[in-house]
Amino acid sequence: MMTFTNILGQYRRWKGVQDTIRQLNRLNDNELNDLGIGRWRIREIAQNSIR
């Protein structure tokens, strides 16, 4: 059974991933390259940053 706390925790993690994706997508390719990030890896990086 999912408690409110579990649901809230899942929402916060999801929101954190979405916010990170949005922020990284705002960077241009040169800025991403400076960080060593390929645009194709944004979702993976965002998901790993929340764990």
Mean model confidence by pLDDT? 95
- Count of individual helical segments: 3
- Summarize the helix and strand pattern as letters: HHH
Question: Distance N terminus to C terminus?
Answer: 22 Å
The unreliable regions are none
Largest sheet: none
The 3D shape can be described as elongated
Percentage beta strand? under 5%
Class based on secondary structure composition and strand pairing: mainly alpha
Descriptive notes:
With 51 residues, the chain is mostly helical. It has one domain. 73% of the residues lie in helices and 0% in strands. It has three helices and no strands. The radius of gyration is 14 Å and the shape is elongated.
Offer a quick outline of the entry.
It is built from 3 helices and no strands. It is elongated and about 45 Å long. Helix content is 73%, strand content 0%.
Task: Spell out the key features of this protein.
51 residues, mainly alpha, elongated
What is the element layout, followed by pairings?
Blueprint: H1 4-25, H2 29-34, H3 42-50
